[in-house]
Amino acid sequence: MVGRRAVLLTVAWWLAAPAGHGAVAPFGDGDTVCWVGDSITKGGHYQTLVELAYATRYPDRRIRWYNCGVGGDRAASMLDAAGYRVAVDVLGHRPTVCTLMLGMNDVERQLYEPGRAGPQIEMQRAAALHVYEDSLGKLVVALQAGGARVILLTPSIYDDTARLARPAAVGVNGALARCGEIVARLALTLHADLVDCWTPMNAINQREQARDPAWSLVGAGQNWNDRVHPGPAGQFVIAHCLLRAQGFGDAEPDLTQVTGRAPLVGALPAAALTLAERRRRTGESLRELATFRYAMARERLPVTDDAAFGRWLADKRAQCEAEGQRAPWLELVQRLLPREADLRQEYDDLALRVSNACRTAAR
Q1: Is 196 left (phi over 0), alpha (psi -120 to 50) or beta?
Q2: Integer Cα distance of 298 and 84 in angstroms
Q3: Angle between the 172-189 and 198-211 helix axes, to the nearest 10 degrees?
């Protein structure tokens, strides 16, 4: 159960909404933005909505966008392999702005699975939050030292209340509410910007589940729900929270149609949508390569050497096959590696084509 304090924050969010309008400086002409996070970021969905909103509202702003999400990531892991994950994978793009959303993995969701209880478990849960706060603070400082303005996003929700076939790890969403409090505290003490995603997402989820107990912002609009990864409606709300904080408008998210539109902007040109989806998928391919480089970096190996990376991939695949296991993700990355430079160029070129499509449509 989410604590009484979090429930009160949820109820108050929409009432207090105008106070957050324009609280975060918008991205400007010449900015390079890195989206940093875990698998919720790796998919590239909420970022694509934000990028399309900017291309539509501000077609003449030249902004470079880079997806820097890695599935399963957490703040402590980023610090442990900071020589690659921070210095190369993020700061290698020379960002002027980094958005940072972590927490879903940091809370150690397995500690909340059915049957896990008792003083020892409570100590482990508290320890996970302590590590999160310490590591996230150090990560913010590292990004700021690299020259980036940091925008901290509170984590998205874990849906432990929807009536679904999949059992819920009750308590995870409450832990994520605690993460939100930590994020807000760090934003204040480290002079980072703050965007609250957890509170409005939780408010919407509670409101809709009062009408339909099986509805979920995490899974709405898709035929699966792992209670973790936001569906199209959830991604739309995350994008809405950021755009609203940056002054795009004050309206409540309109979830009646979350495809073909950007929050607080409206309908998008069909050509731009097609190009943006191509770019998102290209970005996903690049993130697969980055994910395995990151894994190699955690073994303290020379990850930026392409030849060494290729050999490492081949060795890992051989180990899997020797154990009688297939290695589809390793096979995929091996196929992508010779195309990495072309994929990077395509990723950048498509961003320009998206902007041009929006500029043409605005005439």
Answers
A1: beta
A2: 9
A3: 150
Question: Can you tell me the distance from the alpha carbon of 50 to that of 196, in angstroms, rounded to the nearest whole number?
Answer: 16
205/209 Cα distance (integer angstroms):
6
The answer to whether the CB of 213 falls within 8 A of the CB of 162 is: yes
- 286-330, pLDDT tens digit by residue? 999 999 999 999 999 989 899 999 999 999 999 999 999 988 999
Domains of the chain with CATH codes: 4-268 (3.40.50.1110), 269-363 (no CATH)
Overall pTM > 0.70: yes
State the Cα–Cα distance between residues 309 and 325, nearest whole angstrom.
Answer: 21
Tokens of 159: 């849906």
For residue 13, is pLDDT > 60? no
Nearest to 186 by CA among 151, 145, 223, 210: 151
